[in-house]
Amino acid sequence: MPSLHKLSDQLWSGELSTRQPEHHPMATYNTTEEVADGVAFYKDFVNVTGVRTDVGLLLIDTGSFHPVQNQRSHSGIRAHISEPLHTAVYTHGHVDHAYGLPPFLAEDPDRVRPQIIGHENVAPRMDRYEETAGYNTVINTRQFGVPIQWPCDGMRPNVSFRESLDLSLGNTEVRLFHTRGETDDHTWAWLPQQRVLCTGDLFIWAAPNAGNPQKVQRYAKDWALGLRKMAAFEPEILLPGHGLPIFGATRVREALTNTAAYLESLYGQTLELLNQGARIYDIIETVKPPAELAELPYLLPVYDEPEFIVRNICRHLGGWYSGVPSDLLPAPRAAQAREIAELAGGLDKLLARAQACLKSGDLPLASHLIDWAADADPESTEVHRLRAEIYTQQSLGADSTMARGVYTGAARESQKLSGEA
Fold it and tell me: pLDDT band for position 144 (50/70/90)?
């Protein structure tokens, strides 16, 4: 495989694309390279950064909760840095970033537990994860298309901070800053001597994960402000939470400021329409990212979708009310569906129209029609056969991991109910 530096150059130039599965930000490379003096970067589904210091190993992110993945990231870092673990920094409390310490701790079980640093909201996040383990098992299995058993054994930080924290680890200086973005507990790290920036998931070689339809609130405005603060340090290397490093001060500045501009545009357009009293449906159909940013190689919607980001901004700035009065206290979905089927002239007519929309390529409308049919007659194998076909086609045409996961989950569900699974 080419070096991470070479692959990064090829993605930046457009020779390769994050739309290719093998170069998606979460592609599992399972490789480690020294990207600066004493700084080892492990690239896999989730990235881990190891820094050699006079007092021992500094980890920025620790790897995934999954034992195979965290053993791989442990081996990758240990191939370059052998010093005992001294400090671990969680960029945020997601289970692919803050649950990977066990292989490092198992090296010397009698050793005093290392310094584990995270924002003050990391521990409450881990508490919530335990409370909602069932829900998170369901939605993450759906999102990623593989069985996931949500962990309930998060290792809480023993050092926390609110806004910023400066560390001196022997001769190595590390500056930690909090920015609300993908999460409310996000930390980014600046290594001034190496001119290295570790962004966590505030940069992931994709349109920002600021909308995820199955997860909690994101913070687009704060996120953009944080990216601009990072750019002001003039980093020379950017190490993201997912995806490849970016090398060179000019490229790093462009990546950070263009991602900030992307979020600022979506936020500003949405805010303007909200202040005019627009309905959420009108806002979603109107607000788009700037064309000159939307096709940049590091802002493609391969994980999240701009429309999802707009919905999340609406949720943050307003309530859940759509602006359509019938949405306030709606009739039950099944009652609505039966009425629509009757108006269509029966379930067969509804199915025929869904089939026609599928054939013409109007998959969004086909999806509405088939879901009404499924709600009107949830036991119909005929309905579920067509529903599985429609959502399979939806998943094949989806760019983002988020949309593809939901559509594939719906197709699997209907395949089981139709007896074809």
Answer: confident
